[in-house]
C-alpha cells in the first residue's frame, strides 16, 4: 500500500499536535478502481505548522541565501528527481492511470526541466539594477541614484491539480524557490504520490527546514482552503478549475493576498482548407485525446472550413475509433461527469461520429474509469457541451466559411487559454493568430512549449502569466531604492 506523507519544517508525517492527524482517505487506482494506498488529511494544525515553518525558514538560513545558492539547490533537486526517475514515472502513472510512456516522456522530464530552467534563469537576472535619475523625469530637486531590488514575496501557497501532478506542482515550486520564497504546497488529493517523492528529494538536497513544505488533503473546507485563506500566506499560485479559482480569490481578498491562476479552458482549433490536412488531423488527435483529454490545453472545439469539413470529420472519427492505448478518467466522479456530457450532447442534438460511451477491454480496466475518445458534430454554439469545459476525450467539430467567422467562433467562449490554427497561408496565420482571445496560439502545432515563453490564460482561464521571467516577476516584489547623491 502506498502512503503519502506530509513534509513540514523538514520532518515527514502529520504534526503530532494535529487533532485530525490520524484522518486518512483512500488512494484509488483509476485503472481498475482498487484502493492502493492511503493519504493523510491535513487539518488546521498541520497547515498552521507548515505556514509557520515556512515563515521560520525565511527568518532563518533560507532567507539569507543568494541566487547562486538557490540555483545550486534547484540543480540538486533536478538531479535528485533524475536519480529516482523510474520511481517518479511509476508513481505518476500509478496515481493518474496515464500510460507510463506519457509520464516518462512528458511529466517527469518536464518536472526536472522546471528546476533546471529556473536555476538557469536566475543567472540572467541580476537582483540589482542601477539607473541614474534622468532630468525631466524627476519630481523634487536634486539628483538621485535609483536602483531596484527584488524581494521574495514570503510564504507562497502552491495548490495544484491531478492531471499533470508533478509537472504543474514544480512549474510553481521551482520559480517560487528560485525567487527566494518559502513554499507550502498542496497537491491534488487524487495524486499525492509524486509530491511526496519530491519532498524526499528536496529533503535529501539539503534545503533548510521549512523552505519547502507539503501538506495533503482535500480542497473545499479542508487543507486547500485552510492554506489559501491563511493570514500567514503572502501569495497564492493555483492551477485548477475556474470555479475553484474564484472561490480561492474570494477568501484571498480578506488578506489582499496576490494570486497567480492557471484555470480551465474550452480550447478551439481552426482548420483552414489550405492546411496540410494530414498534419491537422494528426495534430487534432493529439490535442483532443492526449491524456484522454485531461490537459488544460486540450482542444474541445474544432472549427473546419466547409470545403474540407466532411473529409476532416471522417478522418478524425476513424482515428478516434482506432485509439486503444489511452488512460482512464482520474476518478469515478470525473468519469460520471464526462459521461453526463456525452449524454447531454446527444440530448442537445449532437451526432456521435465516434465513441460516446464506455469502452470494453475484457480485462481489469473494465472496473476502471474509462470513457471512449469521442467526436461529435451538429451542435450550435449555445449548447452547454460547447460552452462548458468537459476535461475528457471529447471534441466537437463544426464548419465555418470565412476567416472572420472562424475567429468569431473561436472567441465565442468565456475561456481563453489556448488555440490552434492550421493553415499553409503564412499571411493568414499572422492575421488570425493575434485576433484569437487566448493566452497561447499555436500555428500548425500543438503543445510545443518553450519554458521561457509566457504561459497563462485570458478571460476565465487565468490571472497572470507564468513561465520564464514572468514567474520570477510574480514570485518577487520590485523595490525602488532612491539615494540622493
Ligand atoms: P480543482 O480546481 O478541482 O482542484 C485543484 C486543486 O485545488 C486541488 O489540489 C484541490 O484540492 C484544490 N481545491 C479545490 N477546492 C479548493 C478550495 N475551495 N480552496 C483551496 N483549494 C481547493 O481542479 P482539478 O479537477 O484538480 O483539475 C482540473 C482543472 O484544472 C480543469 O479545469 C483544468 O482546465 C484546470 N487546469 C488548468 C491548467 C492551466 O495551466 N491553465 C493546467 C491544468 C489543469
How are the secondary structure elements laid out?
Layout: E1 2-3, E2 7-8, E3 11-12, E4 24-28, E5 35-40, H1 44-59, H2 67-83, H3 85-96, H4 100-123, E6 128-132, E7 144-152, E8 155-159, H5 165-178, E9 182-186, H6 193-204, E10 212-214, H7 223-228, E11 235-239, H8 242-252, E12 259-262, E13 267-271, H9 277-289, E14 299-305, H10 306-322, H11 332-347, E15 351-354, E16 374-377, H12 384-387, E17 394-400, H13 403-411, E18 415-416, E19 418-422, H14 426-432, E20 440-443, E21 458-459, E22 462-463, H15 468-474, E23 476-484
Parallel strand pairs: 1-5, 8-9, 8-11, 9-10, 11-12, 13-14, 13-19, 14-17, 16-17, 19-20
Antiparallel strand pairs: 2-3, 4-5, 6-7, 7-23, 12-22, 15-16, 18-21
Helix pairs in contact: 2-4, 2-6, 3-4, 4-5, 9-10
Bound molecules: nicotinamide-adenine-dinucleotide.
Outline of the structure:
38% of the residues lie in helices and 21% in strands. The protein is an alpha/beta fold.
Question: Could you name the key traits of this structure?
Answer:
485 residues; alpha/beta; Aldehyde Dehydrogenase, Chain A, domain 1; Aldehyde Dehydrogenase, Chain A, domain 2; seven-stranded mixed beta sheet; 15 helices; 38% helix; globular; binds nicotinamide-adenine-dinucleotide
Give helix % range. Answer: 25-40%
The low-pLDDT segments are: none
CATH class (first level) name of the largest domain: Alpha Beta
Associated small molecules: nicotinamide-adenine-dinucleotide
- Give the strand line-up of the largest sheet: 15-16-17-14-13-19-20
| Overall pLDDT confidence | 95
Number of strands: 23
Beta-strand residue fraction: 15-25%
Helix count? 15
Total of domains: 2
Q: What is the level-2 CATH architecture name of the largest domain?
A: 3-Layer(aba) Sandwich
Using the coordinates shown, work out and report the CATH topology of the largest domain: Aldehyde Dehydrogenase, Chain A, domain 1
- What's the end-to-end separation, in Å? 66 Å
Largest sheet: 7 strands, mixed
What does the overall shape look like? Answer: globular
The CATH superfamily of the largest domain is known as Aldehyde Dehydrogenase, Chain A, domain 1
User: Any idea what the radius of gyration is?
Assistant: 24 Å
